[in-house]
Design brief:
Layout: H1 2-23, E1 30-36, H2 43-48, H3 60-72, E2 76-85, E3 90-98, E4 101-108, H4 115-121, E5 136-137, H5 140-156, E6 163-172, E7 175-183, E8 189-196, H6 203-209, H7 228-244, E9 251-252, E10 256-261, E11 264-273, E12 279-286, H8 293-297, H9 311-327, E13 334-342, E14 347-355, E15 361-368, H10 375-379, H11 392-404, E16 408-417, E17 423-432, E18 436-445, E19 449-461, E20 466-475, E21 478-488, E22 495-507, E23 512-526, E24 530-544, H12 552-555, E25 559-573, E26 584-594, E27 604-616, E28 628-641, E29 684-697, E30 700-712, E31 722-733, E32 736-745, E33 755-761
Parallel strand pairs: 1-3, 4-7, 8-11, 12-14, 15-17
Antiparallel strand pairs: 2-3, 4-5, 6-7, 9-11, 10-11, 13-14, 16-17, 18-19, 19-20, 20-21, 21-22, 22-23, 23-24, 24-25, 25-26, 26-27, 27-28, 28-29, 29-30, 30-31, 31-32, 32-33
Helix pairs in contact: 1-3
Keywords: Cell outer membrane, Membrane, Repeat, Signal, Transmembrane, Transmembrane beta strand
Organism: Thermovibrio guaymasensis
Protein name: Outer membrane protein assembly factor BamA
Length: about 775
């Protein structure tokens, strides 16, 4: 008010001083209008708000209005006008003094909250972490608002006595810096909580839903700020807890805050009235045409006539109904529950008012961020298309498919409703990852001696989604050549053609192994999230140069044989990201058959079933950020030889133990062994993996795990399953995920190591 009064006095002073001089020119033609003193504000902007123009008749009243309008712009500290005689009329000169522009805001005295955090809370730092460049004319109302917000921030952090004032410092005639001086005062902590008046719901249950928590060293809660906004939220949460249990007549008093020590307070929550629990009366739906009452009631077993009233169940049913409509493309659907209470019978009728709206259609799909990847490669993975129906399930599936190509570090798909229509623009923004790798190196081991290595792999070849690799290892004891190629959308269908060639020779201590083979596999997506594939492998194996002390399983394989193997699989992948999943599940069933009718020498078959489930703790119905992911993986394998083949070939047995089965054990160590203690493989396997992961960043995850598994011949012996536990790390790199684990045996046997390190690339399961 004081500033407004000063402004009025200033304007009146200007007008009173200039009025007598201006009156003598009244009615004369304006020859020229001049603006003097402006630096930041363009002359054209000022002249736009001055109605006195050359050629018009001069009016002192109009000049007064112009000054008033210019002051309203907020750019000027002072404005004055003088009038003088010209050659063809009068000349008006507007003298302006601009307010300084605030170019920065700084803080002093803030210890509990950093300046960066304060700027984030005040909206002076963008979501991308970039600081806003201020160019704001001095505005005391704006600064007062910032002052109030700072006090509210400190109040929320538990500093109720915080005082804030600001000063303006000119750094040049046209620039200034606003400094907020903060006196934080003493922090108020909650040391204890007491709940009174509750009989139907325990104090522990009530305390669990509160935002306000007491200090607790055991729970690593060293700070427990006392905040008025949190106390108001607590009252709301207590009511919601009672509503959830059906107590609709509950009355919660204002929390009482009692000081019990220096900076230490006790909060007392008073339940004034609990009342009796209500039951659901009538449950009706209005406005629903697409779904019947029966269809909608199936979405919740808790919302039923006669069952105890549960407000949370009502809200969940609302969300499920909206999602059900969204699955059919009615994303504009809205559901409003109306609760009618009958205190005389302690029942509550619920009517769900449903506005179905129109079905949504895709207008445009806009793709950004792809440099190497062709638009067509991205569009074919989308389950949305222009002019087609838009729905939430298709949106989620599109995001999942793009992530699972492995070509993008980040995928952001956002729908934008076209105002005034039932159409949606889908904006797809991708960030590509490095998909090519060339490696040259050398290695040495006691088995292979000196080995030279060269490899070339490329994913998303030419932006088409295809991938291929060539690898070569060569040395005096080793030769390993492999080639693979995956052709996506073969024949312009959602199917992949994969081919591979390999030729290897390994000279071990007791024998030499040679393999030459060719494989081909065609897999196709069907039923939206399912995939099936069939393939064939022809491989020639040769075991030679066997020493007398070689394991028996090697001696049994001496000579040459040809394996003709047919493979078929069916799978469904609902993981949000197959490389570093956060939620969803995965199921796969694989069968393999080898026989002489497939141009081979061996007859056997294998059946392998896998299931994995991932749960994100952030999906729990609580307000806490819990960056934990729990997962469980189960794998069962069954194999048999038939015909004139008496024993399963060595390379097609199950070897339990190692970095992809039961960690903490060496390869095959958790399965059967021969008389010399060497793994001999099995024709039965059963493995369970349990993990708990913590996301340090979006690219880094720490995990703990427990593995249980075993391998046997001819029957499953669950009592003989081996057990391990350990820790690990997952790093999502441009070349794919890298994993490093260490596992400890929980049932260590004589002669076994206590632990084992495991390193690998790719997803664990």
């Amino acid at each position: 008010m004081r500033r407004i009064a000063l402004l009025i006095v200033l304007v009146l002073g200007i007008l009173s001083q200039g009025a007598p001089a201006q009156e003598e020119f009244k009615g004369k033609v304006v020859e020229k209008v001049i603006v003097i003193g402006n630096e930041a504000v363009p002359k054209e902007t000022i002249l736009y708000y001055i109605s006195e123009k050359p050629g018009k008749k001069f009016s002192p009243k109009q000049v007064a209005k112009d000054i008033k309008n210019l002051f309203k712009l907020g750019y000027f500290e002072n404005i004055s006008v003088d009038v003088k005689e010209g050659k063809r009329g009068v000349i008006l000169r507007y003298f302006v003094k601009e307010k300084p522009v605030i170019t920065d805001i700084v803080f002093k005295g803030n210890k509990a909250i950093s300046s960066k955090k304060l700027k984030e809370e005040l909206g002076l730092i963008s979501e991308e972490g970039e600081e806003t460049k201020l160019q704001k004319p001095l505005d005391y109302k704006y600064l007062d608002q910032l002052k109030q917000k700072i006090e509210e921030i400190y109040l929320k952090k538990g500093y109720p006595g915080t005082e804030v004032y600001y000063t303006i410092e000119r750094v040049s005639p046209t620039k200034a810096v606003a400094t907020f001086v903060i006196s934080e005062g003493q922090k108020a902590n909650v040391c204890s909580i007491e709940v009174k008046g509750n009989r139907e719901i325990s104090s522990g249950e009530i305390e669990n839903v509160l935002v306000t928590k007491p200090k607790s060293i055991l729970r690593l809660r060293f700070n427990a700020p006392l905040s008025q906004s949190n106390l108001e939220e607590d009252v709301k949460r207590i009511r919601e807890l009672y509503y959830k249990e059906g107590y609709l007549d509950v009355e919660v008093g204002e929390p009482q805050v009692v000081k019990v020590g220096k900076g230490c307070y006790k909060v007392i929550y008073q339940i004034v009235k609990e009342g009796k629990p209500y039951k659901f009366g009538k449950v009706e739906f209005e406005g629903n045409r697409l779904f019947s009452r029966k269809d909608l009631l199936k979405l919740s077993k808790k919302v039923r006539p006669g069952k105890r009233f549960n407000r949370e169940a009502v809200d969940k049913l609302v969300r499920k109904i909206i999602r059900k409509y969204g699955e059919l493309g009615f994303i504009f659907a809205n559901v409003v529950p109306e609760v009618k209470v009958h205190p005389e019978t302690y029942t509550a009728d619920v009517t769900f008012h449903i506005y179905e709206g129109e079905r949504a259609y895709v207008r445009w799909i806009n793709i950004k961020g792809n440099v190497s990847t062709r638009d067509r490669t991205i569009r074919r993975e989308l389950d949305l298309y222009e002019t087609g129906i838009f729905n939430t399930i298709r949106l989620e599936r599109s995001i999942r498919r793009l992530f699972n190509t492995g070509y993008f570090e980040n995928v952001d798909v956002k729908p934008k409703v076209v105002e005034g229509t039932n159409k949606v623009d889908v904006n797809v923004n991708v960030k590509e990852r490095l998909t090519g790798m060339f490696s040259v190196g050398a290695g040495y081991s006691s088995v292979s001696r000196l080995v030279a290595m060269v490899g070339l792999s490329k994913g998303n070849l030419f932006g088409t989604g295809d991938s291929g690799s060539i690898n070569l290892q060569a040395g005096s004891k080793v030769f390993d050549f492999s080639f693979s190629y995956n052709h996506k959308w073969w024949l312009d269908k959602p199917q992949t053609l994969s081919i591979g060639l390999y030729n290897t020779r390994y000279e071990y201590f007791t024998y030499t192994s040679k393999k030459t083979g060719f494989s081909a596999l065609v897999s196709r997506r069907f039923w939206e999230d399912w995939k099936a594939g069939v393939g064939y492998t022809i491989e020639k194996d040769k075991i030679t140069d066997i020493d007398e002390d070689a394991p028996n399983i090697i001696k049994e394989e001496e000579g040459s044989e040809t394996i003709g193997l047919a493979t078929a699989f069916v799978s469904r992948d609902l993981r949000d990201n197959r490389f570093l999943p956060h939620k969803g599940d995965y199921i796969k069933l694989t069968t393999q058959v080898a026989g002489d009718y497939l141009f081979g020498d061996k007859n056997f078959y294998k059946v392998i079933g896998e299931y994995a489930y991932y749960f994100n703790f952030n999906d729990l119905p609580i307000d806490l950020e819990l960056p934990f992911i729990a997962s469980v993986h189960a794998k069962v394998g069954y194999a048999e030889a038939f015909g004139d083949t008496s024993r399963l070939p060595i390379d097609y047995r199950f070897y339990v133990g190692g970095d992809t089965s039961v960690r903490g054990f060496k390869w095959g160590e958790a399965g059967p062994k021969d008389k010399d203690g060497d793994p001999e493989g099995a024709n039965r396997e059963l493995i369970f993996n349990f993990e708990l992961g913590y996301d340090v960043t979006r690219m880094l995850r720490l995990i703990s795990f427990v593995d249980v598994g075993g391998g046997w011949w001819d029957k499953y012996k669950l009592g003989d399953m081996r057990k391990s536990a350990g820790l690990g790390i997952r790093v999502l790199t441009p070349m794919g995920p890298i994993r490093l684990d260490i596992g400890w045996k929980l049932d260590r046997k004589s002669g076994e190591s206590s632990s084992q390190w495991h390193f690998g690339m790719g997803s664990y399961f």
